[in-house]
Design brief:
By secondary structure, the chain is α/β, with parallel strands linked by helices. The protein contains 34 helices and 10 strands. This is TPR-like protein.
């Protein structure tokens, strides 16, 4: 018996690994070699140590030998001490080949049954490198004894060592939560320090980290919750806590115990034997630690170098492949330790900058065909952009901010987009000046984000500023100027300023027809915008013709499933509805919804718009139950994605109120009508066309409940507002006249009714 480490009295769990080891090792007639592999700190040594003591108890005739495999010197010394204990002849001779003598001794079956444990055999080069000893070259691996009565275990972080040395491999995963709590409880001297924070213990499920946490708690007499609060501190302070050394009878006194430093030797080995793997690990430490796309890693030639580098990192268990093999996770503590390693080498800032530049290279544009790709990169871009290590004006940072911001816009994440686009504008304004074309593009993009959040007045101010500066800097017919015209038209339309919006829309369309081709996507965008404006103004036939023109052009140029094509399908459905063409409108709405669900996802604002619109069509046709279901789905989605006070959310509240009334659910309908009106008055203003729709809806509801005086006041307000905002010729205005006449007639006010 030669095992220099004490048995771990706090050892728990790992029964499956121990059973598997015992089943594989003790096979008569064959020298079995089994490797235990896993991340540093996962408990490989403790499993091997527990097996050694179990073997001593269960198999008293089996000798057990422990050899630290960290260096040739530690192996030489262990072999010498084992040889002395076994009284191997010649072991103490001055010129003795100690390793060969012990190998020969154990290789003789007369030496009996034995188990040799090689612990921490992580350095492949050390085991397979050829050295000159005596007359012939030898390798360290060649000194492993072989006997039909012998078995060998090696613990290693390196899969490459495991495959080279062993016949079988047993992987050791992290422990589960229950076992983690048991280890923690057994390691604390004062159980009261465990307090009520067990459910929050999320440091890691690595036994070494848990034992170190317990040692820190014991030493400082603090509670677990106090220890966990250190994890909310800065990265440097977390590393300082994790760098606290601690003593343990079941670990080597000459090795670094802290979890923060336990991987340093592995980092150095990787850097020396596979520099590309070290570069990949450095880059991964600068991004989010989950679902890191392989495409983020810089490609190299030959491709085998990349495959080998990834293999090295997985071999050391520093990263793990996700299902499908195209992305990786890196353990949180490895992530922290790698960053600390880079910080000590004074290269963390450099690698943070390199990561920004790499993300700038791979981050796609905001075309929806790239949605899966940009969603894969979002968390990693956010991580490095939030880093204080990357200067605000660092190379590539503004470009990455802009691309990420525009993709967030396309993904319907408007608030996040605004946060990034504000930074882009400020960086470019400081670096290039407020009238540089790139600064004006940033200003225009920010206005777009504000408009989609319903912040129409702020967006209008920015769009006017962008237009004025582009006209001055670029000229009236530059594509950028025409884009600003189009954007300003949209924000004016959203505020019900239809006349000025019309002027801007027609000017943008004429400019684009002149400067671009008729079927250019931007030209078709102007055709679409004008069609929507004509619809708002009640000019339905002209709007339908323009909308069909935009749709046909987009189908031809962009394809049937492009987000802009789907937008045109949605527009046409609304215009058809306004003309009473319900069947065709419903078919168009269903087509738009199906396409948007496929291309944009179920929770994208545009998809929720299609859900709302389809609910309209169904309600128009008396399909009230289905309409209510769709209306609630649209409202719940918009509340979640856009917030309760976004104009589109308030439109869904208003729509649901109408459907509820049609279903005879009057109390809920009235509450929804009031909520919609109050919200629109606050967000859009009392005279906005959408607000007037809610005033009209509530007036109709009151009329149907025979509350004629209240209904009359509401109808008067609607009529006066529509005459002023929309004009007397808009289709909504005569409708308001008719509604007021009906409520007056029911009150016996016949003269005023006749006048109307």
């Amino acid at each position: 018996w030669f095992v220099p480490l004490m048995r771990n009295q706090r050892f728990v769990g790992r029964s499956s690994q121990l059973s598997e080891l015992e089943a594989q090792l003790f096979v008569e007639g064959y020298c079995q070699k089994v490797a235990i592999i896993g991340l540093g700190g996962v408990g490989k040594t403790q499993i091997a140590l527990e097996l050694a003591y179990q073997t001593k108890s269960k198999r008293p005739n089996c000798s057990v030998f422990w050899v630290p495999g960290t260096s040739p010197e530690s192996i030489q010394q262990a072999y010498l001490e084992i040889g002395r204990q076994l009284l191997v002849p010649g072991i103490d001779d001055k010129e003795a080949d100690v390793k060969n003598l012990l190998k020969s001794y154990l290789g003789n079956e007369n030496s009996g049954q034995w188990l040799l444990i090689l612990d921490n055999a992580d350095d492949l080069d050390m085991w397979i490198k050829t050295t000159e000893i005596g007359a012939k070259p030898t390798r360290l691996i060649d000194y492993l004894p072989k006997s039909n009565k012998g078995s060998i275990i090696l613990t290693t972080r390196s899969r490459k060592v495991a495959v080279e040395v062993a016949n079988n491999v047993i992987e050791v995963p992290q422990i589960d939560e229950e076992i983690g709590f048991q280890i923690l409880g057994k390691s604390l001297r004062n159980q009261a320090l465990l307090d009520d924070s067990q459910s929050r213990y999320s440091v890691t499920y690595l036994p070494l980290a848990i034992v170190q946490a317990a040692a820190y708690i014991n030493k400082n007499d603090i509670t677990l919750s106090e220890y966990l609060s250190r994890w909310d501190d800065t990265e440097e302070n977390i590393i300082e806590v994790l760098g606290e050394n601690f003593e343990g009878e079941r670990r080597y006194h000459d090795l670094k115990n802290p979890i923060a430093t336990t991987w340093l030797i592995s980092f150095d080995q990787i850097r020396d034997c596979d520099p590309l793997a070290a570069e990949y690990l450095s880059l991964m430490s600068c991004v989010e630690l989950k679902i890191i796309p392989q495409s983020l890693l810089p490609p190299v030639r030959p491709k085998k170098r990349m495959i080998d580098a990834i293999g090295t990192l997985t071999a050391y268990s520093f990263i793990s492949r996700r299902l499908g093999g195209q992305s990786f996770d890196i353990h949180r503590l490895v992530h922290l330790a790698t960053r600390n390693w880079l910080r000590e080498q004074e290269s963390l800032v450099e690698w943070s900058q390199k990561t920004v530049e790499r993300l700038t290279e791979v981050f796609p544009d905001d075309d929806h065909k790239n949605r899966n790709l940009w969603r894969a990169y979002f968390p990693h871009a956010a991580c490095v952009l939030a880093s204080t290590l990357v200067p605000r004006d660092a190379k590539g940072r503004a470009v990455l901010l802009e691309r990420s911001g525009l993709c967030l816009l396309s993904d319907g994440r408007y608030t996040e987009a605004e946060e990034q686009l504000v930074q882009v504008m400020e960086i470019r304004k400081d670096a290039l000046g407020k009238e540089h074309p790139d600064t004006l593009t940033s200003l225009s993009n920010l206005a777009w984000a504000l408009r989609n959040q319903g912040k129409q007045k702020e967006a209008e101010a920015m769009d006017r500023r962008a237009l004025e500066r582009r006209e001055r800097v670029l000229g009236n017919e530059h594509p950028g100027t025409l884009t600003s015209l189009s954007n300003l038209a949209l924000v004016l339309r959203n505020q019900g300023k239809y006349e000025e919006a019309g002027v801007m829309s027609r000017r943008a369309l004429e400019g684009r027809k002149k400067m671009l081709e008729k079927e250019h996507p931007d030209t078709l965008g102007s055709v679409r915008n004008l069609a929507c404006l004509l619809n708002d103004q009640g000019k339905y036939q002209e709007a339908e013709a323009m909308s069909r023109r935009a749709l046909e052009g987009r189908e031809k140029v962009l394809g049937n499933n492009h987000s802009d094509t789907l937008r045109s399908i949605n527009d046409l459905a609304l215009i058809l509805r306004n003309q009473g063409k319900y069947e065709e409108a419903e078919a168009m709405s269903r087509r738009a919804l199906k396409g948007r669900e496929k291309v944009l996802g179920n929770e994208h604002p545009d998809t929720l718009e299609s859900v709302r619109n389809l609910a309209w069509m169904l309600d128009d046709q008396g399909k009230y139950q289905e309409a209510e279901t769709m209306s609630r789905q649209a409202l719940e989605g918009r509340e979640k994605v856009l917030g309760n006070n976004h104009p589109e959310t308030l439109r869904s509240v208003s729509n649901l109120a109408v459907v509820l009334e049609d279903n005879g659910k009057y109390e809920e309908a009235e509450a929804m009508n009031q909520r919609a009106l109050e919200g629109k008055e606050k967000v859009l203003g009392k005279e906005h066309p959408d607000t007037l729709i809610s005033v009209s809806n509530l007036a109709v509801f009151l009329y149907n409940r025979k509350k004629y005086e209240e209904a009359e006041a509401m109808h008067r307000r609607t009529l006066e507002g529509r005459e002023e905002v929309l004009g007397k010729e808009h289709p909504y205005t005569p409708g308001s006249v008719n509604n007021l006449a009906l409520v007056l007639e029911n009150q016996g006010k016949y003269e005023e009714t006749e006048a109307l």
